[in-house]
Design brief:
The complex is a heterodimer.
Chain A lengths: L7 E5 L8 E9 L2 E9 L6 H4 L5 H8 L7 H16 L5 H31 L5 H7 L1 H22 L8 E2 L2 E2 L5 H5 L1 H20 L11 E6 L10 E4 L4 E3 L3 H4 E5 L6 E5 L5 E2 L2 H7 L6 H8 L13 H21 L16 E9 L2 E9 L5 E7 L1 H20 L5 H13 L5 H4 L2 E8 L1
Parallel strand pairs in A: 2-15, 6-11
Antiparallel strand pairs in A: 1-15, 2-3, 4-5, 6-7, 7-8, 9-10, 12-13, 13-14
Helix pairs in contact in A: 2-3, 4-5, 4-6, 4-12, 5-6, 6-8, 8-12, 13-14
Chain B lengths: L2 H4 L8 E6 L8 H4 L2 H10 L1 E5 L11 E7 L2 E3 H13 E7 H6 L11 H11 L4 H7 E6 L9 E3 L6 H12 L11 H8 L4 H5 L15 H4 L16 H10 L4 H8 L7 H4 L3 H5 L1
Parallel strand pairs in B: 1-2, 1-3, 3-5, 5-7
Antiparallel strand pairs in B: 4-6
The chains are: A alpha+beta, B alpha/beta.
């Protein structure tokens, strides 16, 4: 090894403020990144296997445990799959309540991520706790909004982490009208907070991190997508979720216990808030489109750092939509539909806060699972995160000190709000310079 | 040495670390989700390591290490030993840390079946997984000495803040020994088993959640693990009487806390006896 090939190895213990455990291996040779691998080593837990032989509602309770931050994404995805399998057509009441509950998860997850995990990056703090000393009002506002999301989850599920309210065919209990009415003034007050958050974030300094890849989201016939059966891409394709495998390929990469997804041709794909808002801008009500345009960002945007803005706009939309559902609420004594289990194969998909969560069940004649597939948004995004890191670090300047490179890499990764326990946890950054 | 004596020299302003092992992160959220309390907590203790919230110093000397998650890999065996060596006290939180959690369902497989699982889920690079995996997902106490434990899947904010407060006062976190039924009776919740013939594990499961499921009109499924005094024979007899198959009964106990001794022993054989 000659002098030019001298190797410097820097180990950084953990990437903070992501939910998970992993490591980033960077190899820099002659001013170019020659290796960029996100290693994820969350210990495998084998949900797909130990749920074989289980009855439907046991699976709904169990899959919440995949991820403490977005338990409902799994519960809703699997409920959708079972309901498709058994031919259950949800009543408008059940659909609205499912949507309300899931919007609770969007609100909770988006404001937790943007305020405690992401915003400190833009304002140069190491944590939300540290940032709160200088930005107490902003942090408390975000926390208030996050709590409102939790409150919605609690109303319909008894608690916000691993809620217990949802079952195949509907809910175990319908809330009383006064319980739902109690949310209305809180949601009304939250609209102003949420608008202020959008304005605050639009003043943040945004580095450049272009993602040139195919953007993918669900597409709802009439509104912004949360539950839907159609997929749309930035290349103009639309197809049913049942054909997901014809368009994307899931595989296991050596560096990770999380499965990766790409297009069939091997290109990374991007799921999540930025893809959603880009592909569904027309599905936002006009006044929210105006609010989004007033941020000064030209939509569609390919700058991953705009994800924080996308989340705040989605947060505003979610609060407004939740408010509408609450205002129109009437009690029912039939919060769930009966169904007859049968042997079937079915897909279920939802837009989790981080992107499309898509699940597949294969069931025997009792409706018990014989095979299960779980595709979490973070794992589907992994090839995109790696490619995005490669290009944005090169743009940032590889000659910068390792500490600055590390902070920038962390910031790029946090844009994806990686929920690594879905897939896998904790990040070590290894930089090798040659 | 009794616990109060043991805690007598506990630091007035302790250093605290929060560590994650194999888990869903849901128990850490009990602290993060209530950011107001977390900010307040940060004024009375020094949070030196809590990766998800920001502070990083994994192997710093601490007064109290709070542990979430189970141990399922060789790497984590090493890590938990390091964490223990640097901590004066260890507090395990949640079903994964206390009993191995839902992922401990792998402990019922034999070597051949686990290989099959590994191949099925990670078809391309199975060897990497086999190299890292242990045959079992086990609680923290299976590897190191644990001073205090909080059950739950997940634990809740009140529970963890109360436990930290109690430790700061020099007393051991209180244990909830009553079954879920006690809460239902106190709260006047209609018994789902009596009124709706809905199976409910409340008679044998520890309370701590405040009877969330019966309040939603459904049966308890065991998040907080077995109650201290659990009459399993009577519980199993009741479930059979309600028409549940042996397999269904076994699955009820082999779920979130399958490795808790009281539940672990429930097999098709014990049910049919």
């Amino acid at each position: 090894m000659n002098v030019e090939n001298r190797t410097t190895k820097i180990e950084v213990p953990i990437l903070a403020r992501v939910e998970g455990e992993g490591a980033l291996d960077l190899e820099i040779t002659a001013g170019k990144i020659t290796k960029c691998e996100l290693r994820i080593y969350e210990p495998p837990r084998y949900f797909e296997k130990f749920l074989e032989g289980r009855e439907p509602n046991e699976v709904i309770d169990a899959v919440a445990r995949i991820c403490g931050i977005c338990p409902l994404a799994y519960q809703a995805g699997f409920s959708n799959a079972y309901e498709a399998a058994f031919g259950v057509e949800l009543t408008p009441w059940i659909y609205d309540m499912r949507l309300l509950m899931f919007l609770g998860e969007w609100i909770e997850s988006h404001y937790l991520h943007t305020h405690l995990l992401a915003a400190p990056d833009f304002l140069n703090y190491r944590s939300g706790i540290e940032m709160a000393k200088d930005y107490p009002n902003e942090v408390l506002r975000g926390v208030r909004l996050q709590h409102l999301g939790n409150e919605i989850l609690k109303l319909l599920g008894g608690r916000s982490v691993h809620p217990n309210g949802m079952k195949v065919g509907g809910f175990y209990r319908a809330p009383r009208e006064e319980e739902v009415a109690a949310l209305i003034p809180k949601l009304e007050a939250a609209l102003k907070d949420a608008k202020d958050v959008v304005e605050w974030f639009s003043q943040l300094p945004f580095p450049d991190a272009e993602v040139p890849f195919k953007m993918v989201s669900l597409r709802h016939p009439t509104e912004y997508p949360v539950f839907a059966t159609e997929v749309i891409t930035s290349d103009g394709e639309t197809f049913n979720i049942n054909d997901y495998d014809e368009h994307f390929r899931e595989f296991h990469a050596r560096q990770s216990t999380a499965l990766h997804s790409t297009t069939i041709a091997g290109e990374p794909i991007l799921l999540g808030p930025l893809s959603r808002i880009n592909l569904n801008f027309d599905r936002l009500p006009p006044h929210i489109q105006e609010m989004a345009n007033a941020t000064g960002i030209k939509w569609p945007s390919r700058n991953m750092f705009h994800s924080i803005i996308a989340r705040s706009i989605e947060g505003y939309w979610a609060i407004e939509r939740a408010l509408e559902i609450c205002r129109n609420y009437t009690y029912t004594d039939k919060p769930a539909l009966e169904y007859t289990p049968k042997a079937a194969n079915a897909w279920g998909a939802v837009e989790a806060p981080r992107g499309i969560q898509i699940d597949h069940v294969q069931l025997d004649e009792r409706g018990y699972a014989t095979a299960i597939r779980i595709s979490a948004p973070t794992s589907q995004n992994l090839p995109c995160i790696e490619a995005n890191l490669r290009s944005s670090l090169e743009t940032f300047g590889l000659d910068k000190p390792d500490d600055e490179l590390r902070l920038h890499a962390e910031m790029v990764i946090r844009n994806y709000d990686p929920c690594i326990s879905c897939s896998a946890h904790f990040l070590t950054l290894n930089i090798t310079r040659q | 040495m009794s616990t109060p004596d043991k805690l007598i020299n506990f630091a007035k302003r302790p250093k605290i670390a929060v560590h994650k092992f194999s888990s869903c992160d849901g128990c850490q959220l009990a602290l993060i989700n209530d950011a107001v309390s977390l900010l307040e907590l940060a004024t009375i203790v020094d949070i030196v390591h809590f990766a998800e919230a920001g502070p990083l110093d994994e192997f710093a000397e601490v007064d109290l290490a709070i542990i979430e998650g189970s141990v399922n890999t060789h790497h984590d065996v090493h890590r938990i030993e390091m964490v223990r060596a640097k901590a004066k006290y260890v507090l395990s939180v949640g079903a994964c840390a206390l009993t191995g959690g839902i992922q401990a369902l792998r402990n019922f497989t034999d070597e051949k079946e686990l290989r099959h699982w590994q191949h099925d889920v990670y078809p391309e690079e199975t060897e990497v997984i086999i190299e890292g995996d242990l045959a079992t997902a086990k609680p923290i106490s299976a590897y190191v000495k644990v001073d205090f434990e909080l059950p739950g899947c997940p634990i809740n904010t009140g529970q963890i803040l109360r436990a930290i407060r109690q430790i700061l006062f020099g007393v051991e976190p209180e244990k909830n020994v009553d079954p879920v039924c006690t809460t239902c009776k106190h709260a006047g919740v209609t018994c789902v088993m009596v009124a709706k013939n809905e199976s409910c594990l409340g008679p044998v499961v520890a309370d701590g959640c405040d009877a969330i499921c019966p309040k939603l009109g459904r049966g308890c499924y065991g998040c907080y693990g077995p109650a201290k005094y659990a009459n399993m024979d009577a519980m199993i007899a009741k479930l059979k009487e309600m028409g549940l198959s042996d397999e269904q009964i076994k699955h009820k106990f082999h779920h979130i806390n399958s490795q808790a001794i009281t539940f672990h022993g429930v097999t098709a054989r014990t049910i049919s006896q």
